[in-house]
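ESCALATION

Customer reports they have been waiting on this structure for their group meeting. Please prioritize. Original submission:
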Amino acid sequence: MTVHPIRLATLSIFTLALTVGFVPQAIAPWSLRPATAQDVDEETNIRVYEKASPAVVAIETDSSTGSGSIVTPDGLVLTNAHVLAEAGTTVKVTLADGREVNGEVVAFDAGGLDLAAVQIRGETDLPTIPIAAPNSVRVGQRAFAIGSPFGFRNTFTTGIVSRIDDERGVIQTDAAINPGNSGGPLLNSQGELIGVNTAIFSPSANAGNIGIGFAIGVEEVEPFLAAVRDGTAPRTAQRQAGLGGFQAPQTIALDDPPLVAALERGDNVLAMDNSLFDAYTFEGKAGQQVEIEMSSQEIDPYLILLSPSGAEVAQDDDSGGDKNARLVVQLPESGTYTLIANSYAGGESGAYRLSVKTAMGETIPAERTRTTILRENGELQAGDATLSDDGSLFDAYSFEGQEGQTVTIILESPDFDTYLILVGADGSPLARNDDASNGNTNSLIRLRLPYTGTYGIIVNSYDSTGSGRYTLVVE
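Update from on-call: job pushed to the front of the queue and completed.
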């Protein structure tokens, strides 16, 4: 492993890119001027929003609200089935310019996916959102969501693609998806639709944006739109779609006797595929090894484990053998974990057995089990490089990573409000973080690396007043 700490007072971002080796063949777009990663983020955000938002609509029925994307100039709107499931034949559509028009419910996905279409009549030149090429989405790329959460039209949120489930055609993202975002677009940096936002799961009983966000990928969207165009898509929902009322998680304890439960009508529903799930919480400690098993003769079990902060720790489908699910993980932090006991596909119901226990009956100290890729104790101080937009201090480091490797980057300081940026080999920011959690001014990034090669880390203070000691750890 090669580590390159940088400490030059007049270092521009362009020089940083060349020195650390982020740009092996070409100048990255964000290094064409002495700009900051924040500058580039802002420019990309503005460009994507201005390109896509005119084609994002709000949809209102008697019993639900949601969002949609105009995909043809004559007013075909792509949205979620659960938004329209009880809508009847017409809905109210509010365009980005504020006009309210009627939309006709014209199609639902024949396979029961959470996709539906609305046709606006009497329009011929509406703005549209282009659809990205199939199989063009990559883990780690930036993702943008536009929708109408809580009644606020065309709200914009950003994040990254956290995971791609090719079998189910689902994209997982940490871009905030709130109630009302359902049916709105998930976009790439070119403003192209890469998915239809469809559901969240939050560890808390409220419907906030902490947790897992899902979008149905273009590989599933394109066949649906083809069926809409040729008139073969059904005009009624094929399954009871929707999230329904959220049931608060059941509290369990490690090493309790295995429990027997069932996924059945009335349970929580993941709208992306209408699969049922139960939620459980348990207390865990950093470094603790846990083994979780979900088995059934009646359903195909699927497990998702969330950390206390709501980030994904692990998912599994068939590691338990014979379609059963099994996770063996080391807990990354202390706190309350959320376990989602899910079925692999929509429409599955039946009994299951769930076991959550300490693996091998012991807690293994984190320092014995984690692989530390990089650990640096440093200080932001007068004479360090500064970012041009706000004069904030920064240091830079690099590390070598492998495609598919999950890394956790932690920046802690007792002296200043930290800001953390992860940069790819082409010089573009892959992820950034200000506060690890509410009230915690340390920074944390956790993601699966999208390629094998060199990654850069910018250790920054939130503003120009920040200076002092810090610890940077990559695991």
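Sent to customer with the following note: Residues 386 and 393 are 4 Å apart (CA to CA).
Escalation resolved.
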